[in-house]
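Database export, one record per block. Field names are fixed; values are copied verbatim from the stored entry.
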Amino acid sequence: MTIPSIKALLFMKHHSERVPGKNIRPLNDKPLLFWILQTLQKSKYINGIIVNTDSEEIASEVKKYGKVEIHMRPEYLLNITSNEAAQIIEYDLSITEGDYFLQTHATNPLLTTETIDNSIKIFFSQLIHDSLFSVTPLKKRLYWEDGKPINHDPSRLIKTQLLPVVYEENSCIYIFSKTSFSKTKNRLGANPMMFSMNPMESVDIDEEEDFILAEFLLKEKLGKQK
């Protein structure tokens, strides 16, 4: 199996309404962005990291943690309100050489290098799917907004561990090629494959309580490694 050159894409905004300044906010005595940069730099397959940002402060902070290419966000991308990821990816790919890309987020500080490398190996070991996205398996009783069940029959109560699995797109890992993206304008491509992940690694910092949870889990993880 041959694995081609892969570059990682990261988006980091200065402003965040729900968790102000989260990308540079200290998490276990390091800025949040440090953790994903460290994880990517340890990968056997990632040979370049690109950070797209609207913030000179973030750009300056990123440069403290290894070799990273900075794409300062052009003016037309500063106030987009829909399909943000696709538009930023399109811009990054237009000024970047290379065929394959892995997109992730600074808000996934518990994501491990082992999981990233495993997703890459699995993707390039097959020829059917043109892209990959990570998911978290769920075995819970789920309902639509109108109260209709999604994955179970309320009249036939069974143990949750016996329920059919449903999967949550967790935004931790996306792998795609410049070719697949150009065809669909979507990081998922035309025929994506799902990559199932450990829920502990898929914590995404979107709310204040997510930051608290991530810090607790990270301290536990680092404590065990010591």
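Remark 1: The radius of gyration is 18 Å.
Remark 2: The CA atoms of residues 6 and 100 lie 5 Å apart.
End of record.
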